[in-house]
Amino acid sequence: MLLVLVALLVGAPALAAAQPYSEDAAFGTLYTSFGLLQALDAHSTTRALASGATESNAVIGGLAHRPILLMGAKTAVTAGTIALMQRFRKRHPKAALVTMMALDSAYAVIVVRNSRIAHQRRIR
Question: 51 lies in which domain range?
Answer without folding.
Answer: 29-123
